Amino acid sequence: MPGMNKCTDERILVCVYYGPNGERLIKRGIKIAQMSNCPLYILHIDPKPLDEMDAEKSDYIAKWRRLAEENGAEEFVLLDNEPRPAYQVIAEVARQKRITQIIIGESPHSRWEQISKESIVNALLREIPFIDLHIVSVARYMKDADDNYNKGVRAYLVKEDDHYRLTFIYTHNVEYEGIFFKESGTDFNNGIFRFRKEQETIQVQVIEDLVKDFTNVELETN
Fold it and tell me: I need a labelling partner for 110 at 20 to 30 A (CA). Which of 17, 23, 140, 190 fits?
């Protein structure tokens, strides 16, 4: 980072996308860069031109840029109007900046993209095999829902008659494992349970520990 005596050959690149997870990824990169005393780069890619981005996207970019400057990142790289697949652009930037470590978020439905059923992580491993990848799970966070839900915790569903009961202890009769997001400001276990079912990631409503319907629900966010 600028002003610091770089004593290692490490160079870190954080790849961010829209949503609250971008800030978390940057903070992870800052922590690793400070521990290693090495340069930190932050990269955002968007297929749209900068002047066509809406207010929400522009706000995210401004926050990331400010966070980078406040913590002494070497450079905030914004590549807009970019038609190429994200993995190709990331690989190109990594070569240009002589990056040795990449931090990227991975979720069941990656916001970066899927490449003919191949994750961006596998594509990067193939494209730049000699760079270390830090895969940060974002499954425990919900996009734009920080005010309505607590951070997710590991939980399970156990079958009971015609419904399922939420539990936080693994037993032999557990049928589903996932992440429970409790609604803020409630003493009961009300919220959203996110899990994998038949190769699909879905979210179901939990009301006072019980799941009675497996309909995939949309989030109510502020």
Answer: 190
* 117 and 162 co-located in one domain: no
75 inside domain: yes
The residue among 186, 189, 107 whose CA lies nearest residue 148 is 186
Position 22 confidence tier, pLDDT thresholds 50, 70, 90: confident
CA–CA gap between residue 35 and residue 29 (Å, rounded): 10
- Which residue type, as a one-letter code, is found at position 7? C
**SS3 label, residue 109:** coil
- Say if 148 falls within a structural domain: no
- CA-to-CA distance for 70 and 157, rounded, in angstroms? 43
Q: Are residues 27 and 126 in the same domain?
A: yes
Q: Tell me, yes or no, whether 146 lies in a domain.
A: no
> Residue 60 maps to which CATH number?
3.40.50.620
Reading the block at residue 38, the tokens are 């090495």
Which two tokens mark 215? 């309909």
Whether 109 and 58 map to the same domain: the answer is yes
Per-residue pLDDT of 112-150, as tens digits, reads 444 334 577 788 888 898 899 888 766 555 554 556 778
Alpha-carbon span 210 to 212, nearest angstrom: 6
* Residue 25 domain boundaries: 12-137
**For the chain, the helix, strand and coil percentages under 3-state DSSP, each to the nearest 5:** 25, 35, 45
Check whether 27 has a pLDDT greater than 80: yes
CA dist 177 and 175 (Å) reads 7
